[in-house]
Amino acid sequence: MESSTAPNVVGPRQYRNNEKMIAVGDRGWLRAAEDGLIGIKVDFDSNNRLIDTAHNHEFMVLCSCSYLGLNHHPKILQGAIDALKECGTTSLSLSTVRIRPNLLVRLEEELSSLYGGPALLGASCSALSSGILPLIASGHLTEDGKPRVMVFDRFCHFSMAYIKPICGDESLTLTSPHNDLNFIEDVCKKYPRVAYVADGAYSMGGLTALEGLLQLQERYGLFLYFDDSHSLSIAGKNGEGYVRSRMKMNPLTLIVASMAKAFGTSGGVAMLGSDKIFDFVNRNGGPLAWSQNMQIPSIGASLASIALHRSPELGQLQAKLQRNIALFDKEFPTKTAGNGMPVRLLPVGEEEKAVRLSKELYKRGYYCSAVFFPIVAKGEAGVRLMLRADMEEEQVLAFCATVKDIVANF
Amino acid sequence: MESSTAPNVVGPRQYRNNEKMIAVGDRGWLRAAEDGLIGIKVDFDSNNRLIDTAHNHEFMVLCSCSYLGLNHHPKILQGAIDALKECGTTSLSLSTVRIRPNLLVRLEEELSSLYGGPALLGASCSALSSGILPLIASGHLTEDGKPRVMVFDRFCHFSMAYIKPICGDESLTLTSPHNDLNFIEDVCKKYPRVAYVADGAYSMGGLTALEGLLQLQERYGLFLYFDDSHSLSIAGKNGEGYVRSRMKMNPLTLIVASMAKAFGTSGGVAMLGSDKIFDFVNRNGGPLAWSQNMQIPSIGASLASIALHRSPELGQLQAKLQRNIALFDKEFPTKTAGNGMPVRLLPVGEEEKAVRLSKELYKRGYYCSAVFFPIVAKGEAGVRLMLRADMEEEQVLAFCATVKDIVANF
């Protein structure tokens, strides 16, 4: 038996609190589990159809980040196969700081050329954030070498928010209200060196306040770190993403993005402001120096994806996606309508309704996830959905009609 | 200009200190860079030969963790190709909490059967540690649900040490001297709930103090978390690794391992003590619930690797590796000789000698890395090397003779 004077071991809970977060988060998951909406086991049919094999139920998935449908593009699959055959190995199983397969070097070179600046690869986008953010906090990626105050946007992706306690051990780490330029400017006025950590395109459909941030960068030397995973390949002439297509790279900006979404393969890419940073991060990026990096099939698939990015097909797919987004926005003019991003939150009011909508949609052949408090405000529960280029016009319209039909009968 | 009264933003540096660590670590990397021993760009030839294409220099790599040579096994390469063709996609690009490809489910089932207990998959072993360790700290993986004091072995792999500040925000987090059972027992006496975080087989060649730890587990209910990446596939009848082959799973033990080393593919596997933990971690494992998980080629390669694990070939490869280790240990009876692990530290004395040895070895066709203070004690610098099953007897002997020849001429 534990005595009542047992020492208290609970941490400071300065940046996280599992007790609180999991109580809330797991409620959502268990709710979805009750309705059979998690742990669905599927076969991939073709295009965007999946088959729930346990129930022989075919459905369209509207929660996949493969916004251009490149995850099932024949040329990308063939790229993976060709690389396996050419290299004769799945990976070298060693640190790529020491030894780099030429195919990986080629991929870095082609991505650098595609995005116009040094590109560093990681096993995933979260591995890149894990490796890079603490180096920004400790001042190792900026000229003066001094620690920076880290300001994380309250809505930045979990993969970055997760790193807060690590950055917090290196330097003062704060959380800002979402897109709150005044808050960030106040921090810049108070401290000489500040970095702001945010998504470029947010996973709930919104965008970063880029223009205002660039002004703060010019005025105060604000370092900007963006995870632009949700817009890579879908925005910009070369698919360089929302942020990169709207700014020139500079030594005070760093963009990371997942290649496992619209790009169609796996791994993560960091767009850097200088070659010097490339070498330094490569050597001292912690998780980036461990022995698991991009595997040969993923490198091959990525080279094939770059070839597609350089062909007219990219523009065609981007246009098709934009057509589908516009079709949806016309039917449902939500808050983020017109911003060109494929993620949409469709509010229906109370949590109960959101859960019923998501359940009924699945029954009728569409998988979207219900979102409710605390992900969105109370009374603004709804479903989150992701549009894709590999949906035909009539599929988008049929989906919209189905949602309307269900909601009308609530 | 910054005023001398500028506010101090340096973090508490309770668990890490980039300023100090990078000064030391980068010195090592830059030293290796000077000698052309990092950033080598290679093609994979066959077996364990690499070609430094810039210098047309062929060499044997002795820093690869593919201890059984499975990374270039034709059946594993074919497994990846078959899965791509069968599934027609590189991945579904969505959270596997929601929707799981049947091929991933099959892999989980086969690994569960191979290792005798629930197996959970992650995009990498470090993603598993990132997801699981904070849940142990906050008490979410143990029956009583109360926070645990986290004791990290001083030598545990960076991928776990990295998580210290995150665990430290949830509960009291300590670092123990290496394999120090007395230290751990003292913590167990002071606190009712403790978890110990360690490698099974260490990346520098040693082993965990398993027997003593199991006694502490029985006596104090100590939770044991092992990363056994370096022994997976090479130890145990089914390749279940050093720790798992010496103990029965129980709810107070959790083993993670990388599949990108001897297993020959990529991703990470967690061996869990109960199905209940599987479901909970799957839903609340943070990084494990994000949309990047094992890709289809890696799943296919892994299924092929399991088939090999179930055939007599596994035993043959394990035996060949053990023969090579024994050959080496006979020539160089180092501290860890006889422990059956493939990683060896070959001490030569001063740092200068270690660097020269590594450089000269590379010239003569072998890549091993020099290690020196602070990785090893002063005066015990040397080279670190990894033996493999895909080395012939004469290759091991030729390597040993080369080392002796170089050292004799120092």
Structural features, described:
Two copies of one chain form a homodimer. The first copy, chain A, folds into two domains: 18-67 and 312-408, Alpha-Beta Complex (Aspartate Aminotransferase, domain 1), CATH 3.90.1150; 73-309, Type I PLP-dependent aspartate aminotransferase-like (Major domain) (Aspartate Aminotransferase, domain 2). Helix content of chain A is 40%, strand content 17%. Chain A contains 13 helices and 15 strands. In chain A, helix 2 (74-87) packs across helix 10 (296-309) and helix 3 (102-115) packs parallel to helix 10 (296-309). Strand 4 (99-101) of chain A pairs parallel with strand 1 (40-44) of chain B, so a sheet runs across the interface.
SSE pattern of chain A, N- to C-terminal:
HEEEHEHEHEHHEHEHEEEHHHEHEEEH
CATH level-two architecture of the largest domain in chain A: 3-Layer(aba) Sandwich
Cα distance spanning the termini of chain A: 52 Å
Low-confidence runs of chain A (pLDDT<50, min 5 residues)? none
Task: Report the major sheet of chain A.
Answer: 7 strands, mixed
Quaternary structure annotation: homodimer
Give the class-level CATH name of the largest domain in chain A: Alpha Beta
Report the C-alpha radius of gyration of chain A, rounded. 22 Å
Total beta strand runs of chain A? 15
CATH superfamily of the largest domain in chain A: Type I PLP-dependent aspartate aminotransferase-like (Major domain)
